[in-house]
Specification:
Strand content: 25-35%
Number of helices: 1
Number of strands: 7
Oligomer: single chain
CATH class of one domain: Mainly Beta
Structural class: mainly beta
Shape: flat
Distance between the termini: 91 Å
CATH architecture of one domain: Sandwich
Radius of gyration: 25 Å
Helix content: under 10%
Strand order of the largest sheet: 1-2-7-6
CATH topology of one domain: Immunoglobulin-like
């Protein structure tokens, strides 16, 4: 059995050199297939940006191609779910396409929030195809003093 020296790249990344890839088994990552085992199409997933200010968590998502009535936003104290559907106008016959990358159909995305928020005080605004959610954080440090009354 001869020992082969590992390359600098293999040492740096911790990878190993494989001479024969017959032993490799293909693995599906992130469910790239558009259909599940039941044959139904899966929902697309939204891309989001999320950041925070001192008082709010701001979440932005591109929902171009959706009417506001086709978007549903469910907010809990620790998560947000955005669900909707993009409707495609069938102006072009399927055989006439050279290339297609735009996603049409239903989408959903559930986001775990980094801090608890007040769902009833949240705001949702759509402008130029961008959905912006302003989620007020719960101020856990806020205190109140209560006077004790006699009965």
């Amino acid at each position: 059995m001869s020992l082969k020296r590992r390359s600098f790249f293999e040492k740096l990344t911790g990878s190993v050199h494989v001479d024969d890839d017959d032993d490799l088994i293909p693995v599906e990552i992130n469910g790239d297939d558009a259909e599940s085992d039941t044959g139904e199409e899966e929902d697309g997933e939204l891309s989001i940006d999320m950041y925070q200010t001192n008082t709010d968590i701001i979440l932005r998502a591109v929902i171009a191609g959706c009417r506001p009535e086709d978007v549903e936003v469910d907010i809990a104290r620790d998560s947000v779910r955005i669900k909707g559907e993009r409707h495609e106008k069938h102006e072009v016959h399927e055989d006439d396409y050279y290339h297609r990358e735009l996603y049409w159909g239903s989408f959903t995305r559930t986001i775990k929030l980094p801090a608890e928020v007040e769902p009833q005080d949240a705001e949702a605004v759509e402008k130029h195809g961008i959905l912006t959610l302003k989620l007020p954080k719960i101020d856990k440090a806020r205190r109140a003093t209560v006077k004790v009354k006699t009965a």
